[in-house]
Write a structure and sequence with these properties.
With 426 residues, the chain is an alpha/beta fold. The protein contains 14 helices and 18 strands. Strands 5-4-3-6-7-8-17 form a seven-stranded parallel sheet, sandwiched between helices. It is globular. Pfam families: Sacchrp_dh_NADP.
């Protein structure tokens, strides 16, 4: 049985125990001043928020967790699962007065109430700044994340640390990329030239209708990538590549999608060529996504109400197939440098529904520990997750993984260690 065993130390003397594969989390000792912090998880009755709440409660039993949502019955069920250090708060993020009132009572808000696509305002972030509440979200939409970034000056003035795109992907993948780039700059004579993000999730990953809605909405967005510093636009779910995700996952087909880490990595890590691809299983889901892109008008796929109706139609079938496909998740981040150096990071877990919560909890803990400076940051920015805190965050996020490697050449991690002719593969 694979094991992840690390004993890490930072200026705050943080340590963590070993975690066996399949366990959710192992304990973390927070600084005294934040050990009993109140953390509000918006969307806490959903798949991502609920998973985050469970991971946080296991990591830090002393934390007081507030489950924020609109369904009291589901909230009560989650509180019952979490135990005495939790409570439910009825919150509708569109009810600004109620939202601010709830935020006044907490130290950190974790916003998991997606989908973030098509949202016109950063309502929760605005309320967090006004109430001087630390903030993190699991945004996976480019427009929303950069809208959040535009609140930088307000957050600095309020003294509020905020992280956007702080989940599993984007989120952990951004930190993996930052570490690949940092290591390359310190060890290589060449400059980082090309960074590629590859993601795979079996079925819906057990994440339910939200991830399905997110996926459909992304099919309505032109893909933005960067080639030698030039911004280029391409068709969504095109440019298929067959990528080796290594042990436990193997080779999978992945397709271009418009994901926020592409622009943020290009701008903040200074890599001239960046792209992102995603694939799923069974294989016919990829065919279906390609067909939707080709047959449905982009305006239809950008219409949230129409997409929600599609989700309602497909959800029963997706859940049935999920039972067969499982919910394995894998991320592979590739970096190439001008001197020919190639390094890879791989993160694979058997259950996305568990792994996403652990990853999001790792970001929440980083904020509570003071890793994040006042302002609004992407995970790869050192002001968001301090360089010295990255190793701790990655080791926490990787608990329970079936494969987690960093800074290895491709041939050391692939199931078929050969160079693959990729042709033109922005």
């Amino acid at each position: 049985m694979a094991r992840l065993c690390m004993n890490l130390s930072t200026g705050k003397a943080l340590t963590m125990a070993c975690a066996k594969e399949g366990e959710h989390t192992s304990g973390v000792q927070l600084p005294e001043k934040t050990r009993n912090s109140r953390v509000l998880i918006l969307g806490g009755t959903g798949r991502v928020g609920g998973s985050t709440a469970i991971a946080l409660s296991k990591l830090c039993p002393d934390l007081r967790i507030v489950i924020g949502g609109r369904n009291r019955e589901k909230g009560a069920a989650m509180v019952s699962k979490l135990g005495v250090n939790s409570e439910y708060a009825e919150v509708n993020i569109d009810d600004i007065k109620l939202l601010k009132s709830t935020l006044n009572d907490v130290d950190l808000v974790v916003h998991t109430a997606g989908p973030f696509q098509q949202a016109e305002k950063c309502t929760v972030l605005e309320a967090a700044i006004e109430t001087k509440t630390a903030y993190a979200d699991v945004c996976d939409d480019t427009n929303y994340s950069w809208r959040a970034k535009s609140y930088m000056n307000q957050a600095v003035a309020a003294g509020i640390p905020a992280i956007t795109t702080g989940g599993i992907y984007p989120g952990v993948s951004n930190v993996m990329a930052a570490e690949l780039v940092r290591t390359a700059k310190s060890e290589s004579k060449g400059a980082p030239e090309r960074l590629r993000f590859f993601y795979y999730t079996a079925g819906s990953g057990g994440a339910g209708p939200t991830i399905l809605s997110t996926s459909f909405l992304l099919l309505g967005e032109e893909v933005v990538a960067y080639n030698k510093g030039e911004k280029i636009k391409m068709k969504p779910y095109s440019g298929m590549l067959n990528i080796d995700f290594g042990k436990g996952i193997g080779k999978r087909d992945v397709f271009l999608l418009n994901l926020p880490e592409v622009r943020s990595a290009h701008e903040f890590l200074g890599v001239p060529s960046v792209s992102a691809r995603f694939g799923t299983a069974p294989f016919f889901w990829n065919w279906g996504m390609t067909a939707m892109t080709n047959l449905l008008p982009a305006d239809f796929l950008r219409d949230r109400s129409k997409v929600n109706r599609l989700v309602e139609l497909f959800d029963p079938l997706v859940r049935a197939v999920d039972g067969i496909a499982g919910e394995r998740v894998s991320m592979r981040v590739d970096l190439e440098c001008s001197d020919g150096r190639k390094t890879v990071g791989i993160f694979s877990h058997r259950k996305l529904s568990i792994s996403v919560g652990i990853a999001t909890a790792a970001f929440a803990l980083a904020v509570l520990e003071g890793s994040t400076q006042p302002g609004v940051w992407f995970p790869e920015e050192p002001e968001g997750i301090a360089i010295e805190a990255r190793e701790v965050l990655l080791s926490r996020a990787a608990q329970g993984t079936i494969n987690f490697v960093m800074n290895k050449p491709p041939w050391m991690v692939e199931t078929d260690p050969k160079e693959v002719g990729l042709g033109i593969y922005m």
